[in-house]
Design brief:
It is a single chain. The protein is α+β, with helices and mostly antiparallel strands. 28% of the residues lie in helices and 26% in strands. The chain is built from 9 helices and 21 strands. Strands 1, 2, 11, 12, 13, 14, 20 and 21 form an 8-stranded mixed sheet that branches. An 8-stranded mixed sheet has the order 8-9-7-16-17-18-15-19, with helices on both faces. It has a 3-stranded antiparallel sheet with strand order 3-10-6, covered by helices on one side. 43% of the residues are buried. Bound molecules: flavin-adenine dinucleotide. Flavin-adenine dinucleotide binds next to helix 1, helix 2, strand 15, strand 19 and helix 8.
């Protein structure tokens, strides 16, 4: 066979999956249309072991976090570019009860591996609104997703494995054990189109739950050396530049920025930091989330040469390395996928469609 895999889409999902397959000695041809919007280039790229307002531990954090740190470090070494920025994350407390709760959790192994220290009200940080103190987390930071995608495009181009074009679904020929497209053949094709998956009839039955998000760019008048996160995140990129986000909107799914989101972000920001700033940029994107907030991974219920790697939602940076490897082991070694990510959990939706 000419190729082992065709991959459609080179956002974060397609980049990590194709890179991982090639690192495992497989022949991969990637199609990506630069004219389509990418969730990945809007994303802040933050990884954080705790999630949401209640700071619940991120699903599978104990497996995902050690894995992702090594994965991106190895990728940096191979591609020769900086990708991983390990930055502590500060979360101010809102009450003394919260301070006390986390002071106790600090002694539980599952939490302590992610907490650097708890700050009492007396130790509150000057740049942050934190009269009740807060906690400094470790194993947090961000991945420069733009650099990662450019690095993987170069990596693919060096191997003549990249087609900068829109993939036309109607030209795909599906045979029993392979597919053909524009004169090329591959054992399998894996779709990684992010939010555009709804336009792919082979997988549009999967319940995508798109969520728009907006991010501001700020010029800061003094440097911040940690991420601040409470209601909104403030992510320092350089000494004078940071990103602030994000909003969550599942009604307006356009890729346009809105004044409403800007006002909402600035309102939360002013209650969080004490550093003077100036807004210098604003962007919007759509997250490819799933109904149950778990990725979509697996092969089509009827056409075995077709697969999908999508539904990374708000956590593409932390989910994609670990699950790209799990998908490889499923595809090439027959290891079952865990039921939470396998698309077989939604096969009833496919069969009910007909
Ligand atoms: C505002 C915002 C903030 C975020 N912050 C974070 C964060 O801090 N941390 C985090 O982990 N995640 C974050 N995310 C989520 C993250 O962006 C996603 O999880 C991830 O980027 C999804 O990647 P993807 O490759 O699935 O989709 P995309 O990045 O959208 O890529 C899909 C690709 O498929 C291509 N494509 C689609 N159809 C075709 C076709 N027919 N032919 C050719 N190419 C095609 C598109 O051109 C695109 O390049 C954020 C998202 C948003 C919107």
């Amino acid at each position: 066979m000419e190729w082992d895999y065709f991959i459609v889409g080179q956002g974060l999902a397609g980049s990590i999956l194709s890179y991982n397959l090639i690192r495992n000695d497989l022949k991969v041809l990637v199609f990506d249309d630069p004219a389509l919007p990418k969730s990945s280039t809007v994303a802040a790229g933050i990884y954080n072991p705790f999630t949401g307002r209640k700071m619940v531990m991120t699903w599978m954090a104990e497996q995902l976090f050690p894995y992702l740190l090594k994965f991106y470090k190895d990728m940096e070494a191979e591609l020769g570019i900086r990708l991983l920025y390990n930055i502590p994350m500060y979360r101010p407390f809102l009450s003394l009860e919260e301070h006390n709760e986390w002071s106790i959790r600090l002694y539980e192994d599952s939490y302590s591996q992610f907490i650097e220290r708890i700050l009492s009200p007396q130790e509150a940080l000057i740049q942050v609104v934190n009269p009740m103190g807060g906690m400094m987390l470790k194993m947090s930071g961000y991945v420069d997703i733009g650099a990662l995608i450019r690095g993987v495009t170069d990596f693919l181009e060096q191997r003549k494995a990249f087609c900068s074009e829109r993939f036309s679904y109607h030209k795909l020929q599906i045979l029993k054990d392979h597919v053909q497209y524009n004169g090329h053949s591959a054992r399998k094709i894996i779709f990684c189109e992010g939010p555009s998956m709804s336009g792919n009839n082979f997988f549009s039955w999967l319940p995508l739950n798109l969520v728009k998000g907006e991010i501001l760019e700020l010029e800061l008048q003094e440097p911040l050396t940690y991420i601040v996160n409470r209601g909104v995140f403030v992510l320092p990129i350089t000494k004078s530049y940071c990103r602030v986000g994000s909003t969550f909107d599942n009604q307006d799914l356009s890729w346009e920025v809105t004044g409403r989101a800007k006002t909402q972000l600035l309102h939360k920001l002013d209650k969080l930091i004490r550093i003077p700033y100036r807004v210098i940029g604003h962007s919007a994107g759509v997250r490819p989330a799933s109904l149950d907030r778990r990725p979509f991974i697996g092969l089509h219920p009827e056409h075995e040469p077709l697969g999908v790697f999508n539904g990374l939602g708000t956590k593409g940076v932390s989910l994609s390395p670990y699950f790209a490897q799990e998908f490889f082991e499923f595809l090439e070694q027959g290891k079952p996928l865990i039921k939470h990510v396998a698309i077989s959990r939604y096969f009833s939706l496919y069969y009910n469609k007909f």
